[in-house]
Specification:
The protein is mostly beta strands and 184 residues long. Helix content is 0%, strand content 77%. The protein has a 10-stranded antiparallel barrel.
Length: 184
C-alpha cells in the first residue's frame, strides 16, 4: 500500500448544512503519511476550505476555514498482501473566517475529530490503489456526520495522480477532486 506519501489535493464541495443555507466551494490541501512500521502510519495535513453560502436566497457570504490535522492509522494486511484494512483517527483544528455569515463570528476557532475504517486494494503492483472508507466526523457541539470516502490513485514509479470523493450519508455535503501524490 502507498501509505508513505505526500499529497497535494484540490476538490469542489457542495453543502447544505440546513434547509435555508446552500454552499458551494473548494478545498486545497497538503497531506503527509509516514509509515513507522508496516502496521503503523502517522498522518498530518494542512490547507484551506472556502465556501460561498447563500442564506434563504440572500446575498452570497464567504466562509474560509484554514485547517491543520494530525493523527495515526493502523494497517492490517488481508490475504496475499494486495488488500489491507485500516483504522484511522485524526484531530482537526483551525480558524473560521467569515464576512458576515450568521452564527459565525468574524474569526472563530474550530476543532473536531474523525475516525475511519477503510479497505484498500492494490490493483497493479505498488503503483495503483483503490480505497473505500467510512468516516465519522465528531463535531465540537457533540453532533456527528457519517460519510463514505472513495479514492483511486495510479501512476508510474513514485509520481501518482488520484481522484477522490466523499458523500455525507445525510447528503448534506458532497465533494469530488483530484490529487497529485509522491511516494516517499
Amino acid at each position: 500500500m502507498t501509505f508513505n506519501r505526500a499529497k497535494l489535493s484540490a476538490a469542489g464541495i457542495y453543502s447544505t448544512p440546513s434547509d435555508d443555507i446552500v454552499g458551494e466551494g473548494f478545498i486545497v490541501g497538503v497531506d503527509l503519511q509516514f509509515s513507522l512500521t508496516d502496521m503503523f502510519v502517522l498522518e498530518g495535513s494542512a490547507g484551506q476550505r472556502r465556501d460561498f453560502y447563500t442564506v434563504s436566497g440572500s446575498d452570497e457570504h464567504t466562509l474560509v476555514e484554514n485547517y491543520y490535522s494530525y493523527g495515526a492509522r493502523a494497517v492490517f494486511g488481508i490475504g496475499s498482501g494486495d488488500m489491507a484494512l485500516s483504522l484511522a483517527g485524526r484531530a482537526y483544528g483551525g480558524t473560521l473566517l467569515s464576512d458576515d455569515l450568521p452564527l459565525v463570528g468574524a474569526e472563530t476557532e474550530v476543532g473536531y475529530r474523525w475516525a475511519e475504517i477503510g479497505l484498500h486494494h492494490l490493483l497493479i503492483g505498488p503503483w495503483a490503489e483503490a480505497g473505500v472508507s467510512l468516516r465519522r466526523y465528531m463535531w465540537g457541539n457533540e453532533t456527528y456526520t457519517n460519510a463514505v470516502n472513495l479514492e483511486y490513485i495510479q501512476g508510474q514509479s513514485r509520481l501518482l495522480w488520484g481522484v477522490q470523493g466523499e458523500v455525507a450519508l445525510d447528503l448534506s455535503t458532497v465533494s469530488a477532486g483530484v490529487s497529485l501524490n509522491y511516494a516517499l
